[in-house]
Design goal:
The protein is mainly beta. It has a single domain, classed as Quinohemoprotein amine dehydrogenase alpha subunit, domain 2 (Lipocalin), CATH 2.40.128. It is 0% helix and 73% strand. The protein is built from no helices and nine strands. The chain has a nine-stranded antiparallel sheet, with no helix packed on it. The protein starts with a strand and ends with a strand. The model has no long low-confidence stretch (mean pLDDT 93).
């Protein structure tokens, strides 16, 4: 599937650029994997895939407890979209296949 593999993500936030590594696997319409940032690795939740469109959630504790909802589109070796933080709004992200 187009999303399977490891991705290097960069998200633009008011706190500056945030980087993470995303490892994805697809099976039918289900997306599973892990996201690592700043030394913390978290399983993704509620992952879905529909063609080249992806969505997943990640709960983080640093810099504060938040659940981020990612929505993106895979185009070859790039992944672009936005991450919704809830009360702090949405921020764009871009990724490249590692």
């Amino acid at each position: 599937m187009p999303a399977d593999g490891t991705w290097n993500l960069t998200m633009q936030t008011p706190m500056g650029e945030r980087r993470s590594t995303l490892t994805l696997s697809t099976a039918g319409g289900t997306l599973t994997g892990k996201q690592e940032a700043e030394g913390n690795t978290t399983d993704i939740a509620e992952g879905t895939v529909n063609g080249n469109e992806l969505s997943w959630k990640v709960s983080i504790t640093n810099p504060m407890p938040l659940t981020l909802t990612f929505n993106g589109t895979v185009d070859g070796n790039t992944l672009n979209g936005s991450a919704d933080t809830g009360m702090f709004g949405s921020f764009p992200f871009e990724g490249t296949r590692a």
